[in-house]
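Course exercise 7: structure representation. Students receive a sequence record and must write out the corresponding structure in token form. The form below is the worked example handed out in class, using Flagellar P-ring protein (363 residues). Read each field label carefully; the graders check that inputs and outputs are placed in the correct fields and that the protein name is recorded exactly as given.

STUDENT ID: A-19
EXERCISE PROTEIN: Flagellar P-ring protein
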Amino acid sequence: MAALAGLLALFGGPGAAAQSVRIKDIADIEGVRDNQLVGYGLVVGLAGTGDRLRTAIFTRQSLVGMLERLGVNTRDNEVRLDTRNIAAVMVTANLPAFARPGSRIDIAVSALGDATNLQGGTLLVTPLLGADGEVYAVAQGAVATGAIAARGAAASIQRGVPTSARIANGGIVEREVPFAFSGRNTLRLALRNPDLTTARRIAVAINRGAAGTATATDPRTVALNLVGRDAISFLAGIEQLRVEPDMMARVVIEEASGTIVMGANVRVSTVAIAQGNLTIRVTETPQVSQPNPLAAGETVVVPRTGIEVDDQAERRVGVLNGGVSLQELVRGLNSLGVGPRDLISILQAIKAAGALQAEMELR
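STUDENT ANSWER:
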């Protein structure tokens, strides 16, 4: 929390002037997007770290089918197949917008069976399908996991995930997803973070140079009129325009990791905060009492009990005046010695009291 307060002071805190950004950094053109591809393939050449063919039935069937397509008959001896140098994998990729046939894309490979390491393997030709079932790319190449895995008789070490790998430029686009700007009379900009004020500011910025061109239709969408204009030149011009995006007052809390993120517009009404609990610690440290060698007596255990009471008296009730900012809120809670875990409970209590003027999102 102290580091967060330091960063706020470094960048001027919430009172600093908001920075303008380019339209291209906060909005996308509707229809211009990636398409997800998926395929099923085999990775060969593994050093005994592949699937067990006796348990991974789909890997064995895939191996038999592949060999038959290459003219090798293994149906009669299918039961005897016992190699561990092959693994069944799922292959995924994103087909970028305007990717043309022959373009190359990156490929992700993930083990499907009980393979333990894909390092050193080679992915065989794998068709990649779109949501419509058509083949849009073909993948093949040597996989790279970037992971380290070593195992001995009594110890093992692993860094990264050796069953997931990537192939840089391992896919070749076979079919494009058609989308043309020419001949279109209208286009729409889609804001990545929907906000009515930001959409209105984008429309105003565009209309300064071309009146009547842009209209904010909802918090996410700005409609553009392209009648009589070259779409490419017009879009290249407006994407460099700068606007000042607005944002909601929001507090995002991720309880699993204790992470708290608060927007600059978060405000707190007048509220008193007291944080601390009574803690009693009882510690048993028994000691052994042993007589001198020539003295009569016996060795006994003497109990020693220590009791500490921590009522956290050094922590006082803090009062936050109405309308305090994010930086003031963090500074006030730091003065009470509040950690991230306690801060989560305090923010929830402030929200329940109606003093937190922001939306709270729990994850």
